[in-house]
Amino acid sequence: VTTVRITVDGVMYDVPADTNLLDALDALGVLMREVDIPYYCWHPKLSVDASCRMCQVEVAGEPKLQIACSTPVREGMEVSTRSERVTSARQGVMELLLVNHPLDCPICDQAGECDLQDFSWRYGASRSRSKEPRRALEKRVELGPSIVLDRERCILCRRCVRFCREITGTGELAVVGRADRSVIDLQPGSQLCNDYSMNVADICPVGALTTREFRFAARVWNLKSVESVCGGCARGCNIHIDSDSTGVRRYRPRRNDAVNDTWMCDRGRLSHETITRPDRLTTSLVRAEDGVLVSCTVDHAIEHAAVALGQLVEAKGAGVIAGIASAHATNEDLFVFKRLMEAMGSDTLGVAVPMGEGDGLLIRAEKAANAMGAGRIGFGDVSALLDRLRGGGIAGALIMGSDLLAPSHLGSSEVLHKLDCMVVLDTHQSPLLRVADIVLPTRLLAEKDGTITNCNARVQRVRRAVVAPPGAFDEGELIHRLGVALGLEGFDGDYGVEAASVALSESLADFAGTELKGLPPGGRCLASDRDEGAA
Amino acid sequence: MQNVLQIAGYLTEHSQDDAYQTLAGYESRGGYEAARRALAQRSPEQVVAMIGDAGLRGRGGGGFSAGTKWGFMPGEPTGPHYLVCNADESEPGSFKDRLLLERCPHLLLEGILIAAFAIRAEKTFLYIRGEYGRAAVVMREAIEEAHSAGHLGPDSLGTGFAHDVVLVRGAGAYICGEETGLIESLEGKKGQPRQRPPYPAERGAFGRPTTVNNVETLCHVPHIIEKGVGWFRAFGTRDSPGTTLFGVSGHVVRPGLFELPLGTPLDELIFEHAGGIAAGRKVKGVIPGGISMPVLPAGELDVAMTNEALGEKGSGLGTGGVIVMDDSTCMVRVGCVISDFFRDESCGQCTQCREGTSWINKLVHRIERGAAAREDLGILLDVCGKLEGQTICSFADAAAWPIQGLLRHFRSDFEAHLQEGCGFDGSFAL
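Output (structure tokens, whole complex):
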């Protein structure tokens, strides 16, 4: 990349040539960190709008202030962001933006993460000089099933308009009217209901666009935010999980230019509703003599499973025991599972990947976060295994998740009736409970630490944001404890996800350099997918 | 329109002759000879140089050198180049292009052809404002005639130069007279100016190199080609050569269009050519170039009508639309009318303009109805300052300058309103 050297407030930067100043500073990662240039309409993933006029800076040799979002960098350019003229221009923009802005911060969802509020703190006056009544506009315009518009709060930065035109290509939104009658509106006959519609609330710099999900739900300063990854499909969009004592309040996309830019799909965003669904499994279950599943301690269930599996191995050999992995589990979980199957002496492995529709943007057809990781760890397509199961060649099974019941795989739990022993590890109730002998509740991605491997072989970190139901554990831990109970070689002591991660990176060449500690914030591709020299 | 023209010059000398609107009538006056000569005997560079040497400046309000503007266009095209003729005359106080469109259509087409040749444009979009119905009819007929005669088309005037003129109608937004706002509108979008760079010469209409010229500017071109640089420079001043069509309106005895050399003194224009103002009245203030330009008080009318001279007085030539106001005029009401216009016409993109034009408007009205305090005058000036020089296009400047001008020269009118409200009769009815 060709670079040019520019100076901003006396500090030299080598920035990519042929870019605008804001993009150049953004590429260096110094924007809004070392270099303070406030903006509203500019967004790193949208076209330049140049309308808010907040990012004005002084460029040596230019008589007028220049807007950083559309001023190309050039060799030797000297930029000042702190001069009196610049500050005064910012104050001017702030005063004009606030002339008609409602004073409803106390009830506004954006409060606490509002650019208008933040910049007002720095550049705004505490009193308005205007004696004119503030503009009264619609406070609740339903743009679609997920998004509500408050026209009084809107500062007309047009990020939402550009998002719908440039990212989703659906173009539902427009600015209607001109001058001070300008408002955001839907194109005639349209509804904002594309698969990514809720992103407009993220990019709205003020509280004009809110999601129905988060509207009046919480104050942002009461939320704890954890950086993780969405498990809705194989893309692995980077997210913030925002939660409070009542649980997850929202998922928000987190920027990763190698994965999801700054976006995520609505379905993934709303996927946290699975965490608190009433059909969550919260206690271990063992099938009693009378055929009824009875709750028990996890220790008892694991002991029971070890005994049953041990007897089966003794009677029929380990080869009749199948290990069916879930593409929702972490690399660490799956690695431990693979090791258990190896230690038992079975190579009857497979993963059932739930499939659906993908699109050309972010949504992938594989509706699980870790299909790639499962494959690379050694769980191949499950269909050969299922054929063997239908043919009666399998007597016992360790099953993660219920994806094998999908119509494209088994279609029902019927064939599983024949099994002598069936251990199910799952998060939610499913028809598997009709046939399982032992049920071990597991955690969702938002409840555990580990890594997952996305569709482009990028290993990414998931972090525990909320506490799982007390009876639910990581698959890795359950499998490890089962291995201990079975007295298998290599299984001893307590389970730790970090140790599992290290073992994974040391055992499989593809996973070298992907251990939890040391994984870069943006993740890292598997060794065989790494570009030369790239992280 | 006939009796609007008070003084004719080289642009308008035949404009009252109905036959001049037809191709035959225009050619009988030597029409299209200049284009024939330019297209057949000169290179585009020579034409650009000649217009540059002539010192022709844009007549649409900006006053930028036409030759320099053409020179910004890339050389040999790698794809289409476009010329846009800006016939969206919408500056209040301006009505000169209308006469040229309605009465001199072939003069404009000949100017278009020469300019298009100079910038290697394969097509011209003639963008006529929605309100100019008659102009559109006349121009459409003229374009058809020129096409039929082979003056336009794949082999324009038999010179091998291919050119088409496409007539496009605006829908009445003032901002579509701003060149990039016009381009957006031309492309079928909402008329909103574009941030520059890129400039139109680099990426204009439909993403292609484009030059936008005003109607009158293009009408000068055939005359310069025909009669030469020296002839053209004999009119006007060194920096502002040629004639222009001054439109005089307001409290004068003989309002209308006056084709006179640039540099004609403003007082001569008003008192000699436009017949002065009604008996018993005195001039109070004059807006010299359409309402975007700051007003001049009665004592400052001995000024040459050029950008240079008017600039020294804190105003500008603009479009040459002179609005004369006598002593029955309430300058606060003038401010109301002007700020109503800019509040209505702001495209609404830039923060300062969208919010500022509205706030200025409310402040001026507050003063007019006697509800303002003294501090509001300071706030008004301060808000005007926030609009200047900080937006995508110069609309915000145009909204601020006239108000600043009124406050600069007629502060007493504003102060009088603070105490007892408006003391004027309703001569400037709202």
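The mean pLDDT of chain B is 96.
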